[in-house]
Amino acid sequence: xxxxxxxxxxxxxxxxxxxxxxxxxxxxxxxxxxxxxxxxxxxxxxxxxxxxxxxxxxxxxxxxxxxxxxxxxxxxxxxxxxxxxxxxxxxxxxxxxxxxxxxxxxxxxxxxxxxxxxxxxxxxxxxxxxxxxxxxxxxxxxxxxxxxxxxxxxxxxxxxxxxxxxxxxxxxxxxxxxxxxxxxxxxxxxxxxxxxxxxxxxxxxxxxxxxxxxxxxxxxxxxxxxxxxxxxxxxxxxxxxxxxxxxxxxxxxxxxxxxxxxxxxxxxxxxxxxxxxxxxxxxxxxxxxxxxxxxxxxxxxxxxxxxxxxxxxxxxxxxxxxxxxxxxx
Length: 329
Ligand SMILES: Cc1ncc(COP(=O)(O)O)c(C=O)c1O
Fold this sequence. Notes:
By secondary structure, the protein is α/β, with parallel strands linked by helices. The chain has two domains: about 20-65 and about 165-329, Rossmann fold, CATH 3.40.50.1100; about 65-155, Rossmann fold (3-Layer(aba) Sandwich), CATH 3.40.50.1100. It has helices at about 20-30, 40-45, 65-75, 80-85, 90-105, 120-125, 140-150, 165-180, 195-205, 220-230, 250-255, 270-285, 290-300, 300-305, 320-329, and strands at about 35-40, 50-55, 85-90, 110, 130-135, 155, 185-190, 210-215, 265, 310-315. Pyridoxal-5'-phosphate binds near residues 65 and 189.
């Protein structure tokens, strides 16, 4: 039987309003140019839809998370920044915090589960952050990061329950709807749920007709199961898709997606790897597994999206060499 006890998390903070996303956009304008969103005829032919790929893989860290990291560090006082930030991550949240900490000259400690993606680990070190490998999975890494933050007086940055992260990530969806206001659907990959929460926040105000659809690995279904049940659940966390490897639901994103998400789909890791290959073949785009998950959701139900205008978020490009070899084999 799966363990259904709620995670020992403090109460989730309040949801950011849309104005926080607008403020984040103004802040990020001097750091990150908007990422492109392209449609590819080959991908349209393969899927039978009009697909727009939002290229968050084109961020300087190779993933959308950097929007949140910069927004969060900018919101801290100089004294808080001097004490630094501690995070836990399989890689992209870590790179986001390390990148933002380097920019703001703040100390940064990152706990990654043992044997991390070497490319992500060396990117974090290259950004000047301290990297600690600890625990078998993200949940064990989280506990260690919490101890470390308490010991050193650093701010522990949650992977999900952070309004500033969500407001920062929401800037990606402002760009999506600015570029294509008449989308039928936007499909968002989910780990902790900050991306899905951000998409819901923006779509609710600027594109209420657009259906926001979340997608997660069936091997790590905590956010999905939490959304379906309306309760924060912990679940087995066995996906090999790093960005989606989360074992519990997070209160804040769950609250933000609860009534706004049109659907939440689960995919197996093989379907995600197949979509990674199609992303390369049809969209000339190197995506890590999480970055191809939205495409996998589209391909899993082509009839549902036939002829529709659908944005898929290519959320990241930081595939390990092993992962790349597997999906091109
Ligand atoms: C590339 C990529 N896509 C998607 C996700 C899932 O994002 P969230 O945890 O905000 O749901 C992550 C999380 O780290 C990621 O790195």
